[in-house]
Amino acid sequence: MADFEEQFLNVQGWTMEERMAGAEIDVVIPVYRPGIGLRQLLERLESQTVRPSRILLVNTERQFFDEGCIAGYSNVEVIHIRKSEFDHGGTRHMAAAQLKGEFLLFLTQDAQPENDRLIEELYRAFASELVCAAYARQLPAQDCGVIERYIRGFNYGEESRIQTAADLPKLGIKTFFCSDVCAMYRRSAYEELGGFVRHTIFNEDMIFAGKLIQNGRAVAYCAQARVIHSHNYSGVQQLRRNFDLGVSQAEHPEIFACVRSENEGVRMVKQTAVYLIKNNKAYLLPKLVWQSGCKLVGYRLGKNFRRLPAWLIRRCTMNRDYWR
Q1: Is 247 exposed, middle or buried (0-12, 13-18, 19+ CB in 10 A)?
Q2: Over the chain, what is the mean pLDDT?
Q3: Of 93, 100, 78, 97, which is closest to residue 32 (Cα–Cα)?
Q4: What is the pLDDT of residues 147-161, one digit of tens each?
Q5: What mean pLDDT is predicted for residues 125-148?
Q6: Are 272 and 150 in contact (CB under 8 A)?
């Protein structure tokens, strides 16, 4: 990112402070039955070195939303929708249409900025006009299990990178990687390419990142922009999540037909197994095999969902409302 920083500091001859002060960045956070973590997230966003202009919460199920969690924030607004109306792509796109910032930052309610430089580090990547999306590194939470902790490091390494079409032979599916757990988009490019797909079970971020790459743009992975975010999914939960992932890829062959996910998955499992053995945690290998098998079965079922009966789809998915 060093060359980006040099460009960033020299845009129109501005100093860093002037460039940061001129940033107009709006934040979108879908929320569902939020707890105290939402208040903490808002506090951390307000304390950023680059402060967001507006924060829009899109809340599902109004009766479970405590208005007190946004008390005192003049730049925080809430839109309430029904659970049946929520869609991973459509809801975020609806929220983006309510905002006017030059940049859009999407977060999930369970992602916490690690420090006060999250927005600054993401914004830094956009000094290059080629970059139209930038996503953050996800660090494991304290309660994160050993296997998931290693996988977090595998997927979100210490080195920043710029992903373009030229990386497809080397990175494969990771060329299109982007995560709305914490990702910023250049509004002009977002609107030019039509924004997030309006109806999708999952994966709206990678679908749009794929569009950017296919249209000659770039996606930046910013390792210095860090959020704390992890899950301890069971094998069955992994199956359901990967089922939805497979469905999203099957429904968008225009993005994913040219790349394969399985090879990257196999590499991750092999490296995780080596890590466990080298660190005297071989007793976790059966769990790794079980979870990896669940992921693979879920993914392949999802890729072939059109051949499955409706009752089996409902058993496999994490998003039952999508199939109504």
Answers
A1: buried
A2: 91
A3: 78
A4: 999 999 999 999 999
A5: 95
A6: yes
> At residue 63, what are phi and psi to the nearest 5 degrees?
-65, -15
What's the Cα-to-Cα distance from 82 to each of 60, 91, 109, rounded to whole Å? 6, 11, 17
Two structure tokens written together for 168: 């497809």
Burial class of residue 109 (count of CB atoms within 10 Å of its CB; 0-12, 13-18, 19+): middle
275 neighbors 146 (Cβ within 8 angstroms): no
The β-bridge partners of 131 are: 218
Mean pLDDT, rounded, for 240-263: 90
pTM value? 0.91
Interval 176-211: pLDDT, tens: 999 999 999 999 999 999 999 999 999 999 999 999
3 state SS for the chain: CHHHHHHHHHHHHCCHHHHHHCCCEEEEEEEECCCHHHHHHHHHHHCCCCCCCEEEEEEECHHHCCHHHHCCCCCEEEEEECHHHCCCCHHHHHHHHCCCCCEEEEECCCCEECCCCHHHHHHHHHHCCCEEEEEEEEECCCCCCHHHHHHHHHHCCCCCEEECHHHHHHHHHHHHCCCCCEEEEEHHHHHHCCCCCCCCCCCHHHHHHHHHHHCCCEEEEEEEEEEECCCCCCHHHHHHHHHHHHHHHHHCHHHHCCCCCHHHHHHHHHHHHHHHHHCCCHHHHHHHHHHHHHHHHHHHHHHCHHHCCHHHHHHHCCCHHHHC
Q: What are phi and psi of 49, to 5 degrees?
A: -65, -30
C-alpha pair distances (Å), 310 with each of 243, 304, 315, 320, 324: 14, 13, 9, 11, 10
CB 134 within 8 A of CB 57: no
Q: Which structure tokens are listed for 95?
A: 């929220």
Hunting for tokens 């990896």 — which residue is that?
292
Structural contact between residues 61 and 83, judged by C-beta atoms closer than 8 angstroms: yes
